[in-house]
Automatic annotation (TrEMBL):
Catalyzes the anaerobic formation of alpha-ketobutyrate and ammonia from threonine in a two-step reaction. The first step involved a dehydration of threonine and a production of enamine intermediates (aminocrotonate), which tautomerizes to its imine form (iminobutyrate). Both intermediates are unstable and short-lived. The second step is the nonenzymatic hydrolysis of the enamine/imine intermediates to form 2-ketobutyrate and free ammonia. In the low water environment of the cell, the second step is accelerated by RidA. Pathway: Amino-acid biosynthesis; L-isoleucine biosynthesis; 2-oxobutanoate from L-threonine: step 1/1. Homotetramer. The lineage of its organism: Bacteria, Bacillati, Bacillota, Bacilli, Bacillales. Its EC number is 4.3.1.19. Gene3D superfamilies: 3.40.50.1100. It catalyses: L-threonine = 2-oxobutanoate + NH4(+). One of its GO terms (molecular function) is pyridoxal phosphate binding. GO terms for biological process: isoleucine biosynthetic process; L-serine catabolic process; L-threonine catabolic process. Belongs to the serine/threonine dehydratase family. Keywords: Amino-acid biosynthesis, Branched-chain amino acid biosynthesis, Isoleucine biosynthesis, Lyase, Pyridoxal phosphate. This is L-threonine dehydratase. It comes from Staphylococcus edaphicus.
């Protein structure tokens, strides 16, 4: 028997019928703020408003209903720290199947609670392994030992076809107004989303360029397809954009992406943070980092999209409120608004006032001031954080800090010191 390793637009039509009464038809909205900002027509496909607040329900449900009755009764497993786990849990509850969901021990409580909430009595959560890879290994051993069925988050043709159904929705929703998309932007993690969406668009809207967006610290599809022409494992990844931070894409998604993705963009994690904050304050949209990637990519495509019609898939909105502080910090660093120095500070009354008067501009602010070491002499080593009113003032600030203490250390560009101290 040959195993099917690709997906056609017909498979996506079939998945669409399977999912008809299961998933929410999420809105396709014209976004006036982004349209004005980039001088083009930007539409957002709001999968952050899906039942589990991400598109992942589509693929998980479609992959699970594709199992035969016997396999379904044996139960399902998955390994996921986030949205796929929620999709699997939701499906298990809907179809009354047993699910065992493996999550790394480090998974935030909010995500564990959501999985338990959606899965109810049908889902058991097993917390295991410090990293996703360790967790995955255990999940696979357990699946084998218990003759259950592992639901792959991306490298499964049914998962891919399920994700593709959102493309069919986009094209149906835009039909009445005869909207023709020049570009589609969507995030890539393991590649399930872009494979499904890209396949459907290539069949039904071939004039649309498909742009895959990855975090700069985890561009595994770009590296595999463009640089290496084979699936490679990235030795190290930045995990910040969880969901899209994947070290190794799938074999199936690699093959499909080669055919359906027209260009790849890597977005700096700090730019993703600025986009999350912008979407929240300007459009009242709560996007998680992976969900904001597609919108964050527009900056790099400004000249190409001018005057064109663009759709961005806002793929998820499970943003843990506890991460907001870090998101704001990363954004300020990226925008060159926040700067940290280590310097020798005189330990005497009035020294801080002098620093404020001589070093800072009238609208700059001290956001951190902490003695690292007080010496018995009259100076102490201080770490100081300064938020500028305008990023163009950085050169001036550095010159003033140099004047105050020639031996100061600017730590924004020193990754090691920065992660140790901030
Ligand atoms: C919100 C969100 N966007 C995008 C992705 C990437 O999807 P894929 O792994 O199918 O490429 C994920 C994956 O978990 C996700 O959760």
């Amino acid at each position: 028997m040959t195993v099917k390793t690709t997906v056609s637009s017909k498979d996506i039509d079939e998945a669409f019928l399977q999912l008809k009464d299961i998933v929410k038809e999420t809105p396709l909205q014209k976004d006036h703020y982004l349209s004005q900002k980039y001088d083009c027509n930007v539409y957002l496909k709001r999968e952050d408003l899906q039942w589990v607040r991400s598109f992942k329900l589509r693929g998980a449900y479609n992959a699970i209903v594709a199992l035969n009755e016997h396999d379904q009764q044996n139960g399902i497993t998955c390994a996921s720290a986030g949205n796929h786990a929620q999709g699997v849990a939701y499906t298990a509850s809907k179809l009354n199947l047993k699910a065992v969901i493996f999550m790394p021990v480090t998974t935030p409580l909010q995500k564990i609670d959501q999985v338990k909430f959606f899965g109810g009595n049908n889902a058991e959560v097993v917390l295991t392994g410090d990293t996703f890879d360790e967790c995955l290994k255990e999940a696979l051993v357990y699946t084998e030992d218990n003759k259950m069925n592992f639901i792959d988050p991306f490298n499964n043709i049914y998962t891919i076809a399920g994700q593709g159904t959102l493309a069919k929705e986009i094209l149906e929703q835009s039909k009445d107004d005869a909207i023709q998309f020049d570009y589609l932007f969507a995030a890539i993690g393991g590649g399930g989303l872009i494979s499904g969406v890209g396949t459907y668009f290539k069949a039904h809207s071939p004039q649309t360029s498909i742009i895959g967006v990855e975090p700069a610290g985890a561009s595994s599809m770009y590296t595999s397809v463009v640089l290496e022409n084979q699936v490679v494992t990235l030795p190290e990844i930045d995990k910040f954009v969880d969901g899209a931070s994947v070290a190794r894409v799938g074999e199936i998604t690699f093959d499909i992406s080669k055919n359906v993705v027209d260009d790849y963009i890597q977005v700096h994690e700090g730019a993703v943070c600025s986009t999350i904050l912008d979407m929240y304050s300007k459009q009242a949209i709560i996007a998680e980092p992976a969900g904001a990637l597609s919108v964050a990519a527009l900056d790099q495509y400004q000249s190409e999209i001018k005057g064109k019609t663009v759709v961005c898939v806002v793929s998820g909105g499970n943003n843990d409120i506890n991460r907001m502080k870090e998101i704001e910090e990363r954004s300020l660093l990226f925008e060159e608004m926040k700067h940290y120095f280590i310097l020798n500070f005189p330990q005497r009354p009035g020294a801080l006032r002098e620093f404020v008067n001589e070093v800072l501009g009238p609208k700059d602010d001290i956001t951190k001031f902490e003695y690292l070491k007080k010496s018995s002499q009259n100076t102490g080593t201080v770490i100081i954080g300064i938020q500028l009113n305008n990023h163009k003032d950085l050169e001036n600030l550095k010159a003033n800090v140099d004047e105050f203490d020639k031996s100061n250390i600017y730590i924004n560009e020193n990754k090691m010191l920065y992660s140790l101290l901030i």
